[in-house]
Specification:
alpha/beta, three-stranded parallel beta sheet, 8 strands, 30% helix, disordered C terminus
């Protein structure tokens, strides 16, 4: 795996193996691909994007290390973050600066969100319990809010959210 996230993931896995540390990955739902309905941990991985394939590879590499007896691993999978100061590193700086950014989904369709406090609790629980190793866990999520709704209010400038077209145009911005 060359560069970026794959290289960083491989380095973290190698470091955990080298020092005998347990490895708890914070993953996401990209590995499941396009799904029309609830997703459970036992659903087969079927990535439909480069990000999804990278995440699946990270998990497969970690599980292979576990199976080989080199490290204990588990993965906690979360949806998009929701909660106080929850931001996307790919969008938030631009939104906060008032710069338009693309968001390529239907903004009014129900979407899964993971509350950041729940993410932290599941990560800690997975790290502390013997039964957590070798498998993935999902953070409890809600599918009741569209992408448009979390951008409203919260004591900050309301985000103007516009669906990106197939060419990547569109914007999310403050207003």
């Amino acid at each position: 795996m060359a560069g970026g996230v794959p290289a960083a993931a491989a380095a973290v896995l190698a470091a955990a193996e080298r020092v005998g540390a347990d490895y708890v990955l914070l993953g996401n739902m990209y590995g499941y691909g396009l799904v029309g309905g609830p997703v459970t941990e036992d659903r087969p991985m079927a990535p439909s994007s480069v990000k999804g394939r990278v995440r699946v590879r990270m998990w497969e590499d970690a599980r292979a290390a576990y199976e080989a007896g080199r490290v204990r691993v588990t993965e906690v999978r979360a949806s998009d973050f929701l909660g106080f100061d929850a931001v996307s590193l790919f969008v938030a700086p631009e939104v906060l600066a008032g710069t338009p950014v693309a968001y390529p989904v239907d903004l009014d369709v129900p979407h899964s969100w993971s509350y950041v406090g729940d993410v932290a609790r599941v990560l800690v629980a997975a790290a502390l319990h013997e039964w957590s190793w070798r498998r993935a866990w999902h953070v409890p999520s809600t599918s009741e809010l569209s992408v448009r709704l979390p951008g409203r209010g919260g004591g900050r400038a309301e985000a103007r959210v516009v669906t990106a077209d197939r060419g990547g145009a569109g914007a999310v911005g403050t207003g």
